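Per your request, structure below.
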């Protein structure tokens, strides 16, 4: 999808991008050729040409696009970097980064699910996360990642970040992760179906007081948080392509081409 993307370029928004697509200018090479063939010499087109050349140089660098794409547009990163992508969600003892602690971090790369638990293996998380080029969260910009940065003081993975809160809001889906899941008909196992972040805090307290079953429930709750992120992101990609892209470009998402 990235090769068809122009909204990371200066002076190009969605309407201008679609205008180019409608004219048959549908990838970076064709836009660069258009600028050169038309001898478009204004400062505006000079900036676009310069940015395009940088784009070619950085086409396999997700951080380059992460810094240029608006948060609502970062879904475009997933089709290109899905093979090195991880979905992330944390559980904590509260909402304050300096007063509360991380209890569980869940990671899912689309094939394998891993959990890092306070008091067991939480410190192993930092080495694991550096394997990935793309991190996907829901509300991670304001909750998960600030918590992780506070806990792991040297946390700075070379990865781009898709926050599904903004991607889903752009499609008209507001509210928290659980409410959006219900709106889309995504179901959770009955034992954690009604749980929220506050129940996760309570479960950790129960576990700390000797209830091993509470930890098992907390881990299952976290698992559902994480694996459903993949379903949401792929839904969002399909929705964006169907409503915004497919009228102009014959593009198929990788998982739809199988």
């Amino acid at each position: 999808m990235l090769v068809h993307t122009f909204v990371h370029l200066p002076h190009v928004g969605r309407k201008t991008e679609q205008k180019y697509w409608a004219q048959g200018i549908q990838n970076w090479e064709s836009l660069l050729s258009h600028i050169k063939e038309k001898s478009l010499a204004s400062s505006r087109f000079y900036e676009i040409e310069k940015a395009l050349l940088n784009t070619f140089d950085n086409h396999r660098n997700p951080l380059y696009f992460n810094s240029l794409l608006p948060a609502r547009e970062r879904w475009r990163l997933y089709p290109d970097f899905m093979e090195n992508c991880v979905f992330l969600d944390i559980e904590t003892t509260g909402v304050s980064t300096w007063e509360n602690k991380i209890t569980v971090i869940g990671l899912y790369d689309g094939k394998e699910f891993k959990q890092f638990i306070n008091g067991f293996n939480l410190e192993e998380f930092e080495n694991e996360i550096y394997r990935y080029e793309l991190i996907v969260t829901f509300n991670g910009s304001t909750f998960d990642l600030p918590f992780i940065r506070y806990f792991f003081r040297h946390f700075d993975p070379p990865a781009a970040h898709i926050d599904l809160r903004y991607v889903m809001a752009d499609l008209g889906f507001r509210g928290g992760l659980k409410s959006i899941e219900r709106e889309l008909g995504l179901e959770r196992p009955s034992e954690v179906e009604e749980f929220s972040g506050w129940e996760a805090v309570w479960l950790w307290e129960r576990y700390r007081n000797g209830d091993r079953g509470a930890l098992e429930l907390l881990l299952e709750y976290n698992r559902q948080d994480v694996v459903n992120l993949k379903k949401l992101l792929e839904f969002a990609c399909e929705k964006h392509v169907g409503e915004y892209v497919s009228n102009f470009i014959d593009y198929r998402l990788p998982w739809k081409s199988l």
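The domain at 80-237 is CATH 3.30.420.10 (Nucleotidyltransferase; domain 5).

Regards,
D.
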